[in-house]
Amino acid sequence: MSRRFDPVQLSSIDLFCRAAELGSFTAAAQVLGLTPAAVSRSIARLEARVHTRLFSRTTRQVKLTDDGCLYLEQCQQALAQIDAVERAIMGRGDTPRGRLRISAPTTYAHFRLLPVLPRFMARYPQLSVEVNVSNRNVDLVDEGYDIAIRMGTPPEGRLVARKLEDAALGVFASPAYLRRHGVPRNLDELQHHECIRFQMPSTGRTLPWLFRVDGLDVDQPVAGRAVFSDDVLGCVSHATGGGGLVQIYDFIAAPAVHAGALSEVLESYRGRSRPFSLLYPHNRHLSAAVRAFVDFLAGEINSAD
Fold first, then answer.
1. Does residue 265 share a domain with residue 173?
2. What is the pTM of this model?
3. How far apart are CA 19 and CA 164, in angstroms?
4. What is the pLDDT of residues 25-81, one digit of tens each?
5. Distance between CA 51 and CA 283 in Å, rounded?
6. How many domains does the chain have?
7. Residue 232 CA from chain centroid, whole number
8. What is the pLDDT of residues 173-192, one digit of tens each?
């Protein structure tokens, strides 16, 4: 069978996808280390090959045509398949090798994943690791990630979920704040305190605080002048500086409690938690690297409890 694509054509397809995803020839050029003119020439050659315009161009922007949208969808699927096959081939056998791409939220990355990651990499020297640390929920399949760590109950779909832990929650404040404002003895007294709130960036909703009262789960709305979004560590830093009460995971509060920077309050109302899970795509060719990482991190978290 004759070869239909040479390396230059495949490179042009990849470049076309980058330009379409970024909405700019200039942005694609910056990411790939090329000049905008080189990007424009490459896409022009691709348009000549398929005998249609893929972009409509103005002096201010480039925009996909209808044919361009169809071509992008099919090219992304084809490139994702090629990437998946390469990962499966590199991951065959008992020894993890190649590249492992991981996405993790900031808090879990800094306090759970990154401290143990060097041990994982030392165990598997033929494996390289790329970690995206952010609170954006990446699309594992479309963006080429092998595995993600996420908070909450994962939806049914094209991802496999393995629970890592139910992360326990507590309420904490700095000793200086408690000396100035007193220690709350029950949930009603929270209305007289500065409660540091966290707003979910995906929904704009401020998270309620979670308690257990006489064996029943209670979601308690709280009030306070300080609201943080995107990175919950801002709430912790504000509390450590004396800004108020914060409800946070035990694994985040533990170092500050040990150092005397935070003290726990309302201990009799604890008992609630939020789940964290490992997610990875359904794939009958699951790589040795993904299998090794899943088993490793689950073991580390279990041993940390």
1. yes
2. 0.67
3. 37
4. 888 887 777 788 888 888 898 898 889 999 988 767 788 999 989 998 888 888 877
5. 36
6. 3
7. 14
8. 999 999 999 999 999 999 99
Q: What are phi and psi of 2, to 5 degrees?
A: -70, 150
pLDDT digits (tens, 9 = 90+) for 274-293: 999 998 877 645 688 888 99
Task: Answer yes or no: is 1 within a domain.
Answer: no
Q: Report residue 298 as tokens.
A: 């689950």
Looking at 32, 54, 89, the residue that finishes a domain is 89
CA distance 125 to 123: 6
The residues with which 128 forms a beta bridge, in sequence order, are 99
Beta-sheet strands, E only, within 137-245: 147-151, 159-173, 197-199, 209-213, 216-220, 227-229
Q: Are residues 189 and 255 in the same domain?
A: yes
pLDDT at residue 2 is higher than 50: no
Which run of H or E residues covers position 14?
helix 7-22
Q: Which residue has the tokens 């595995």?
A: 147
Backbone angles phi, psi at 273, to 5 degrees: -155, 170
Q: What is the DSSP letter of 215?
A: T
Domain containing 107 — which CATH number? 3.40.190.10
